[in-house]
Amino acid sequence: MSPLSPTDPPRSKSQAPFHIVGDKTTSPLVLDVSRSGTSYPPDFQPTAPFPALHRKIAPYVERVVLPSTAEGATVLRAQFPPSFVDPNRPIDDIDPELLDGQWPTPTNPLAGSLRSGSGLVHSLGTDYTPLYDRKLPVAEVQQRISRYYTPYHSTLSALLAERRHVFGRAFQLSCHSMSSIGPRDGVKRPQICLGDLNGESAAPEYGETVAKVFRDRGYEVSLNKPFPGNELLRRHASPATGIHSLQVELRRDLYLDERTWHLHEGLAPLQDCFTAIAAALRPPA
Protein backbone atom coordinates (compact mmCIF):
# COMPACT_ATOMS: atom_id res chain seq x y z
CA MET A 1 0.00 0.00 0.00
CA SER A 2 1.31 3.43 -0.86
CA PRO A 3 1.50 5.99 1.97
CA LEU A 4 -1.46 7.92 0.58
CA SER A 5 -3.74 5.06 -0.39
CA PRO A 6 -7.40 6.10 -0.06
CA THR A 7 -8.45 2.57 0.86
CA ASP A 8 -8.93 1.15 4.33
CA PRO A 9 -5.89 1.31 6.62
CA PRO A 10 -3.69 -1.78 7.08
CA ARG A 11 -4.82 -3.65 10.18
CA SER A 12 -2.40 -5.10 12.73
CA LYS A 13 -1.96 -8.85 12.58
CA SER A 14 -0.24 -8.71 15.96
CA GLN A 15 -1.11 -6.93 19.16
CA ALA A 16 2.57 -6.07 19.77
CA PRO A 17 2.58 -2.31 20.35
CA PHE A 18 6.23 -1.78 19.45
CA HIS A 19 9.28 -3.31 17.81
CA ILE A 20 12.87 -3.26 19.09
CA VAL A 21 15.89 -3.49 16.78
CA GLY A 22 19.43 -3.88 18.09
CA ASP A 23 18.67 -4.75 21.71
CA LYS A 24 22.15 -6.01 22.66
CA THR A 25 23.30 -3.30 25.08
CA THR A 26 26.46 -2.53 23.11
CA SER A 27 25.89 1.23 23.11
CA PRO A 28 24.37 3.79 25.49
CA LEU A 29 22.21 5.19 22.66
CA VAL A 30 18.47 4.45 22.36
CA LEU A 31 16.52 6.00 19.51
CA ASP A 32 12.75 6.03 19.95
CA VAL A 33 10.44 6.42 16.97
CA SER A 34 7.01 6.98 18.44
CA ARG A 35 4.98 8.55 15.65
CA SER A 36 5.75 6.53 12.52
CA GLY A 37 3.60 3.46 13.18
CA THR A 38 1.50 2.21 10.28
CA SER A 39 -0.24 -0.81 11.82
CA TYR A 40 -3.78 0.22 12.67
CA PRO A 41 -5.25 -1.76 15.59
CA PRO A 42 -8.48 -3.63 14.81
CA ASP A 43 -10.40 -1.62 17.41
CA PHE A 44 -9.35 1.70 15.86
CA GLN A 45 -12.44 2.68 13.89
CA PRO A 46 -12.25 6.33 12.77
CA THR A 47 -14.77 7.55 10.22
CA ALA A 48 -12.49 10.08 8.52
CA PRO A 49 -10.93 9.18 5.16
CA PHE A 50 -7.72 7.24 5.59
CA PRO A 51 -5.37 9.99 4.27
CA ALA A 52 -6.72 12.45 6.88
CA LEU A 53 -5.43 10.28 9.72
CA HIS A 54 -2.47 8.65 7.96
CA ARG A 55 -0.96 12.05 7.17
CA LYS A 56 -0.52 12.51 10.93
CA ILE A 57 2.33 10.02 11.10
CA ALA A 58 5.99 10.98 10.77
CA PRO A 59 6.64 9.03 7.57
CA TYR A 60 9.58 6.67 7.23
CA VAL A 61 11.51 7.99 10.23
CA GLU A 62 12.34 4.40 11.15
CA ARG A 63 13.97 3.98 7.71
CA VAL A 64 16.12 7.02 8.38
CA VAL A 65 17.41 5.92 11.78
CA LEU A 66 17.68 2.11 11.56
CA PRO A 67 21.24 2.14 10.13
CA SER A 68 22.38 3.42 13.54
CA THR A 69 22.03 -0.14 14.84
CA ALA A 70 25.17 -1.05 12.86
CA GLU A 71 27.06 1.02 15.43
CA GLY A 72 25.39 -0.63 18.40
CA ALA A 73 22.41 1.67 18.91
CA THR A 74 18.97 0.37 19.84
CA VAL A 75 15.81 1.51 18.03
CA LEU A 76 12.38 1.34 19.66
CA ARG A 77 9.57 1.89 17.18
CA ALA A 78 5.86 2.17 17.94
CA GLN A 79 3.84 -0.02 15.58
CA PHE A 80 0.59 1.91 16.14
CA PRO A 81 -0.11 5.36 14.66
CA PRO A 82 -0.08 8.49 16.84
CA SER A 83 -3.66 9.27 15.87
CA PHE A 84 -4.69 6.17 17.85
CA VAL A 85 -2.78 7.15 20.99
CA ASP A 86 0.20 9.50 21.00
CA PRO A 87 3.24 8.58 23.15
CA ASN A 88 4.55 12.14 22.83
CA ARG A 89 1.62 13.62 24.74
CA PRO A 90 1.07 13.75 28.51
CA ILE A 91 -1.30 11.12 29.81
CA ASP A 92 -3.75 13.81 30.97
CA ASP A 93 -3.72 15.71 27.64
CA ILE A 94 -7.27 14.58 26.95
CA ASP A 95 -10.07 16.64 25.48
CA PRO A 96 -13.11 15.86 27.68
CA GLU A 97 -15.37 16.80 24.76
CA LEU A 98 -14.08 13.72 22.93
CA LEU A 99 -15.27 11.39 25.68
CA ASP A 100 -18.57 9.65 26.24
CA GLY A 101 -18.46 9.69 30.01
CA GLN A 102 -16.47 11.18 32.87
CA TRP A 103 -12.72 10.63 32.94
CA PRO A 104 -11.81 9.26 36.40
CA THR A 105 -8.96 11.71 37.02
CA PRO A 106 -8.50 15.41 36.17
CA THR A 107 -7.69 16.14 32.53
CA ASN A 108 -5.34 18.87 31.38
CA PRO A 109 -5.70 19.34 27.62
CA LEU A 110 -2.98 21.57 26.21
CA ALA A 111 -4.06 24.59 24.18
CA GLY A 112 -2.05 23.46 21.17
CA SER A 113 -3.55 19.98 21.36
CA LEU A 114 -7.07 21.35 21.43
CA ARG A 115 -6.33 23.63 18.49
CA SER A 116 -4.88 20.87 16.32
CA GLY A 117 -6.90 17.94 17.65
CA SER A 118 -3.64 16.20 18.53
CA GLY A 119 -3.77 15.38 22.22
CA LEU A 120 -3.22 11.97 23.77
CA VAL A 121 -5.99 10.67 21.51
CA HIS A 122 -6.23 12.65 18.30
CA SER A 123 -9.61 14.04 17.33
CA LEU A 124 -8.80 15.82 14.05
CA GLY A 125 -6.97 14.89 10.87
CA THR A 126 -4.27 16.99 9.26
CA ASP A 127 -6.91 18.89 7.31
CA TYR A 128 -8.95 19.38 10.52
CA THR A 129 -11.38 16.67 9.45
CA PRO A 130 -13.00 15.10 12.55
CA LEU A 131 -11.66 11.57 12.95
CA TYR A 132 -14.85 10.29 14.58
CA ASP A 133 -18.58 10.76 14.20
CA ARG A 134 -19.07 9.70 17.82
CA LYS A 135 -17.67 10.27 21.28
CA LEU A 136 -15.24 7.67 22.59
CA PRO A 137 -16.18 5.53 25.61
CA VAL A 138 -13.88 6.10 28.57
CA ALA A 139 -13.06 2.38 28.69
CA GLU A 140 -11.91 2.47 25.07
CA VAL A 141 -9.44 5.27 25.72
CA GLN A 142 -8.23 3.60 28.92
CA GLN A 143 -7.55 0.44 26.92
CA ARG A 144 -5.45 2.37 24.41
CA ILE A 145 -3.39 3.71 27.28
CA SER A 146 -2.94 0.37 29.03
CA ARG A 147 -2.20 -1.69 25.92
CA TYR A 148 -0.14 0.74 23.84
CA TYR A 149 0.89 3.99 25.53
CA THR A 150 2.04 2.63 28.88
CA PRO A 151 3.95 -0.39 27.48
CA TYR A 152 5.81 1.87 25.05
CA HIS A 153 6.94 4.20 27.81
CA SER A 154 7.73 1.35 30.20
CA THR A 155 9.89 -0.34 27.59
CA LEU A 156 11.73 2.86 26.74
CA SER A 157 12.36 3.48 30.43
CA ALA A 158 13.75 -0.04 30.86
CA LEU A 159 16.04 0.26 27.82
CA LEU A 160 17.48 3.52 29.10
CA ALA A 161 17.90 2.22 32.65
CA GLU A 162 19.72 -0.87 31.40
CA ARG A 163 22.16 1.20 29.36
CA ARG A 164 22.78 3.55 32.25
CA HIS A 165 23.55 0.53 34.41
CA VAL A 166 26.04 -0.84 31.87
CA PHE A 167 27.68 2.38 30.70
CA GLY A 168 27.08 4.78 33.57
CA ARG A 169 24.92 6.97 31.36
CA ALA A 170 22.33 6.63 28.61
CA PHE A 171 21.38 8.76 25.63
CA GLN A 172 17.82 8.99 24.34
CA LEU A 173 17.24 10.39 20.86
CA SER A 174 13.52 10.85 20.21
CA CYS A 175 13.14 10.91 16.43
CA HIS A 176 10.43 12.78 14.53
CA SER A 177 9.82 14.60 11.26
CA MET A 178 8.19 17.91 10.44
CA SER A 179 6.69 19.56 7.40
CA SER A 180 9.02 21.96 5.61
CA ILE A 181 6.61 24.89 6.05
CA GLY A 182 4.95 25.73 9.37
CA PRO A 183 1.19 25.24 8.88
CA ARG A 184 0.23 28.23 11.00
CA ASP A 185 2.90 30.83 10.21
CA GLY A 186 3.87 29.73 6.69
CA VAL A 187 7.57 30.05 7.60
CA LYS A 188 10.20 27.70 6.18
CA ARG A 189 11.52 25.51 8.96
CA PRO A 190 15.17 24.65 9.66
CA GLN A 191 16.42 21.40 8.17
CA ILE A 192 17.13 19.86 11.56
CA CYS A 193 15.65 20.92 14.89
CA LEU A 194 17.16 19.56 18.09
CA GLY A 195 15.16 19.96 21.29
CA ASP A 196 16.40 19.65 24.86
CA LEU A 197 13.47 21.25 26.70
CA ASN A 198 15.39 24.52 26.62
CA GLY A 199 18.42 23.09 28.35
CA GLU A 200 16.66 20.86 30.87
CA SER A 201 16.79 17.37 29.37
CA ALA A 202 20.44 16.82 28.45
CA ALA A 203 23.98 17.93 29.11
CA PRO A 204 25.06 20.49 26.48
CA GLU A 205 27.81 18.17 25.24
CA TYR A 206 25.27 15.63 24.01
CA GLY A 207 23.43 18.17 21.91
CA GLU A 208 26.70 19.56 20.61
CA THR A 209 27.84 16.10 19.52
CA VAL A 210 24.63 15.44 17.61
CA ALA A 211 24.52 18.93 16.08
CA LYS A 212 28.13 18.63 14.91
CA VAL A 213 27.37 15.44 12.99
CA PHE A 214 24.63 17.20 11.04
CA ARG A 215 26.50 20.47 10.55
CA ASP A 216 29.66 18.72 9.37
CA ARG A 217 27.54 17.23 6.58
CA GLY A 218 26.10 20.57 5.54
CA TYR A 219 22.74 20.55 7.32
CA GLU A 220 21.23 23.60 8.99
CA VAL A 221 20.58 22.90 12.69
CA SER A 222 18.45 24.86 15.15
CA LEU A 223 18.04 24.30 18.89
CA ASN A 224 14.57 24.28 20.49
CA LYS A 225 13.00 26.24 17.62
CA PRO A 226 10.36 25.47 16.60
CA PHE A 227 10.19 22.34 18.81
CA PRO A 228 11.85 22.10 22.25
CA GLY A 229 10.48 18.61 22.92
CA ASN A 230 7.44 17.12 24.58
CA GLU A 231 6.37 14.21 26.77
CA LEU A 232 8.97 11.70 25.63
CA LEU A 233 11.69 13.98 26.95
CA ARG A 234 9.82 15.18 30.05
CA ARG A 235 9.05 11.65 31.14
CA HIS A 236 12.42 10.01 30.53
CA ALA A 237 15.14 12.66 30.79
CA SER A 238 17.14 12.72 34.00
CA PRO A 239 20.51 14.34 33.33
CA ALA A 240 21.35 14.45 37.04
CA THR A 241 21.16 10.65 37.20
CA GLY A 242 22.78 9.97 33.83
CA ILE A 243 19.91 9.83 31.33
CA HIS A 244 20.29 12.52 28.67
CA SER A 245 17.43 13.07 26.23
CA LEU A 246 17.18 14.96 22.95
CA GLN A 247 14.44 15.28 20.39
CA VAL A 248 15.35 15.52 16.71
CA GLU A 249 12.91 16.80 14.09
CA LEU A 250 13.88 16.16 10.47
CA ARG A 251 12.43 18.38 7.79
CA ARG A 252 10.62 15.96 5.54
CA ASP A 253 11.69 17.42 2.22
CA LEU A 254 15.23 16.30 3.08
CA TYR A 255 14.33 12.68 2.39
CA LEU A 256 10.94 12.52 0.64
CA ASP A 257 8.57 14.30 -1.70
CA GLU A 258 6.08 15.95 0.64
CA ARG A 259 3.24 15.68 -1.87
CA THR A 260 3.58 12.00 -2.75
CA TRP A 261 5.61 10.79 0.25
CA HIS A 262 7.95 8.96 -2.10
CA LEU A 263 11.45 8.63 -0.71
CA HIS A 264 14.23 10.27 -2.72
CA GLU A 265 18.03 10.42 -2.86
CA GLY A 266 18.21 12.51 0.31
CA LEU A 267 17.47 9.44 2.43
CA ALA A 268 20.96 7.92 2.33
CA PRO A 269 22.84 11.03 3.54
CA LEU A 270 20.48 11.32 6.51
CA GLN A 271 20.91 7.64 7.30
CA ASP A 272 24.66 8.22 7.31
CA CYS A 273 24.15 10.97 9.91
CA PHE A 274 22.45 8.61 12.32
CA THR A 275 25.14 5.98 11.85
CA ALA A 276 27.72 8.67 12.61
CA ILE A 277 25.82 9.82 15.71
CA ALA A 278 25.77 6.26 17.04
CA ALA A 279 29.48 5.90 16.31
CA ALA A 280 30.28 9.17 18.08
CA LEU A 281 28.42 8.08 21.22
CA ARG A 282 29.70 4.51 21.30
CA PRO A 283 32.31 3.88 24.01
CA PRO A 284 35.79 2.83 22.88
CA ALA A 285 36.24 -0.91 22.51
TrEMBL record:
A single MF term (Gene Ontology): hydrolase activity
Keywords assigned: Hydrolase
Region span, Disordered: 1-21
UniProt-listed Pfam families: FGase
Stored InterPro entries: N-FG_amidohydro
Keyword Nucleus attributed: no
Keyword Hydrolase: yes
Protein name from the UniProt record: Putative hydrolase
